[in-house]
Amino acid sequence: MSGFIASTKTNGPRRRGLSLLELLAVVVVLATIALLVVPRAGVNIDTAKQKANAMNIAVINSTVERYYLVNNTFPTTVDDLHDPDFFPDGAPVNPVTGAKYVLNPTTHRVQTGGGGGK
Description:
By secondary structure, this protein is mainly α. The chain is 44% helix and 0% strand. The protein has a domain at 40-118. It has one helix spanning 20-71. The termini are far apart.
């Protein structure tokens, strides 16, 4: 019957938790990973903003053409496109600078440079 009773003897002191060296090793590994990942995330955010800016310019230029087809006149500013048929929530702003886009009065396209540039 004694074979079924669990032994209460232990093989030395029982370890609980992490030692200071193990904890230090984990912190060093996490810091190394953070040093590699954080700079890349910053570059990716800038690249995404630049691509979103280029897409916004293309969409606004396309919307200016649709505006002309509907109204037989070109909009004078990007704010003229604030219409349920074109930009019901308002025209997008430049994600890089936060400025409004500006239309060139001659070409009726988004100006490069200044507030709406690439």
